[in-house]
Amino acid sequence: MRKFINTVFVFVFLSSVAFGQNISVADVIELSKMNAPDFINYCKKKGYKYSGKEEIQNYLRTKIVGVKISMLQYGNGNYNYVRHTTRPSGQIKIKYEIYGKPTKRRSQKINSIKQQIKNLGFSINEREEYLSNCQNGKIYMRGKFERMCVNNINGVFAIDYVVKRSSGKITLE
Fold first, then answer.
1. CA-to-CA distance for 95 and 157, rounded, in angstroms?
2. Strand ranges for the chain from DSSP E
3. According to the model, what pLDDT value does residue 166 have?
4. Euclidean distance between the first and final Cα of the chain, in Å?
5. Structure pTM?
6. Strand, coil or helix: what is 117?
7. How crowded is residue 167: how many other Cβ atoms within 10 Å of its Cβ?
8. Dist CA 164 CA 89 (whole Å)
């Protein structure tokens, strides 16, 4: 019996190390409350590696209007990608993407994420779908200020989460 328990423990441990730690929908929401250094540290603890920083410039390219920081986790031909975008208005957007070949495990993960969204009190808002640039996806809203675009196109499952922090409209760019 003891040998069986040890075998199960080793299997569970190796599985968690091999597949990395997933980010849940609640984690995505929590990430939106973090500044850039806290975002990087949190993602590193989850097994992600720093992938780069990009400055967002205005249309005329005369001033910086935001910063994107990217983190990446990969293994076995699949990878997960998390991006933290900060705007001067105080708006923070979190983008979480899962890339990979269709498998039963990946389908279960996507179904689990969709269920998490519903359990957290988000509901589909069809009116917002027509007004946003969430292509081929569903817009989920919770209250007036939280918006989540969820889509699954060409092997990429993506969540864009945005919260309106100060005056101004919510954008998913």
1. 11
2. 49-57, 64-75, 78-86, 92-99, 123-124, 137-142, 146-153, 156-163
3. 52
4. 55
5. 0.74
6. helix
7. 7
8. 9
